[in-house]
Amino acid sequence: AFRGVDLDHLWQAMSRLRLPWLAALVALFLLSNLPRARRWQVLMAPVSREIPFWSAVWALMVGYAGNCLIPRAGELARVMAIRQTRKLPVSGLVATVVVERVLDMLTVVLLLGVVLLFYRDQIALTFPWMEAVGIAAFAACLLVLLALGLLSAKGDRALAALKMRLSGLSPSLAARLTDALGALFRGMGAVR
Q1: Roughly what angle, to the nearest 10 degrees, separates helices 53-69 and 19-44?
Q2: By the number of CB atoms within 10 A of the CB, which of 107, 134, 154, 175 ranks highest?
Q3: Is the pLDDT of residue 123 over 70?
Q4: Using 50, 70 and 90 to split pLDDT, how confident is the model at 192?
Q5: pLDDT digits over 22-61, tens only?
Q6: Cβ atoms within 10 A of the Cβ of 43, count?
Q7: C-alpha closest to that of 145 among 105, 104, 99
Q8: What is the largest CA-CA distance in the chain?
Q9: Are the C-beta atoms of 73 and 65 separated by less than 8 Å?
Q10: Contacts of 59 (CB under 8 A, 6+ apart)
Q11: What is the SS3 assignment for 87?
Q12: Which of 162, 160, 192, 190 is nearest to 95 (CA)?
């Protein structure tokens, strides 16, 4: 973390910190995670309605710590943090994270659309490709949400057909695979 960092310069910068502003920043960061935890709790409802709010908050904090060690490892870390307290299927919990990321991306793309609406000419001068990319990203997010919703709503039929076909090869493999996919589809249930 400190490779290539001038420690004297770092110490000088830290000595100029104003503690009230730092405390306000930490408090704002912690408070901003409360709605995120509630959103994830709602997304996890198809997997389990018994996940307490503070467990979701704790899992988010574990996820942030994981991201400090390895980028994007926090998503898996928070899934495993919830899994420690509740024996829920990992595939279902991972599906809730996927749905959450798609919703985040859709929100960013919608915000980009609002900005393009008001500053289209100025943005087009610097980034002439931005509008086309924004439209494509919006369409892709909607298609992914539609696909997740369809899998969640109609996945049982596909699972039954898959289990029937795989049972001839290996009944135990068919059962394990369809159980994992079923949990994944339940995790996408919030899309409906």
Answers
A1: 120
A2: 134
A3: yes
A4: low
A5: 999 999 999 999 999 999 999 888 888 889 999 999 999 9
A6: 23
A7: 99
A8: 70
A9: no
A10: 37, 40, 78, 79, 81, 82
A11: coil
A12: 190
